[in-house]
């Protein structure tokens, strides 16, 4: 009588299930990563616009300056920042990709929000 040999290894079905599970996890990770990078780009632009608005408030409250300063030319997180005109006009910034929307900052309160 022959002894049965035990087979060692995985079946094709088991390997396919593992590949499918890894594919699902990768798809979830890509979506989460893209949302994370977009949020980071929006927050970085908001920080740069808020920093400029703070400089504007300091300049407008200082007796040695005449009018608001121009927007910084070395911004890296925003495509553009509008110059401050007066206290009533908000300053806006457009984030670099993958960011979206517009950052709007109120000068007197230096509060910023992102508008989609």
- For the record, give the distance between the C-alpha atoms at the N and C termini, rounded to a whole number: 77 Å
Classify the helix fraction into a percent range: 40-55%
- Largest sheet features: 4 strands, antiparallel
How many distinct helices? Answer: 1
- How large is the share of residues in beta strands? 15-25%
Series of secondary-structure elements, N-terminal to C-terminal: HEEEE
The total of beta strands comes to: 4
Biggest sheet strand order reads 1-2-3-4
Regions with little confidence, pLDDT below 50 for 5+ residues: none
Structural class: alpha+beta
Average pLDDT? 91
Assembly type = single chain
Shape: rod-shaped
Fill in the keyword field for this structure.
116 residues, alpha+beta
Write up what this structure looks like.
It is a single chain. The chain has 116 residues and is α+β, with helices and mostly antiparallel strands. It has a domain at 35-115. The chain has one helix and four strands. The protein has one helix at 12-61, and strands at 78-81, 91-95, 102-106, 111-115. Strands 1-2-3-4 form a four-stranded antiparallel sheet, with helices on one face. The longest helix has 50 residues, at 12-61. It starts with 11 loop residues before the first helix and ends with a strand.
């Amino acid at each position: 009588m022959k002894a049965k040999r035990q087979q060692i290894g995985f079946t094709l079905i088991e390997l396919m299930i593992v590949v499918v599970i890894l594919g699902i996890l990768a798809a979830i990770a890509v979506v989460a990563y893209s949302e994370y990078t977009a949020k980071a780009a929006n927050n970085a632009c908001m920080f740069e616009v808020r920093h400029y608005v703070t400089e504007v408030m300091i300049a407008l409250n200082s007796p040695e300056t005449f009018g608001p300063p121009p927007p910084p030319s070395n911004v890296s997180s925003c495509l553009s920042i509008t110059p401050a005109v007066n206290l009533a006009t908000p300053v806006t910034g457009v984030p670099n990709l993958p960011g979206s929307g517009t950052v709007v900052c109120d000068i007197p309160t230096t509060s910023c929000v992102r508008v989609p």
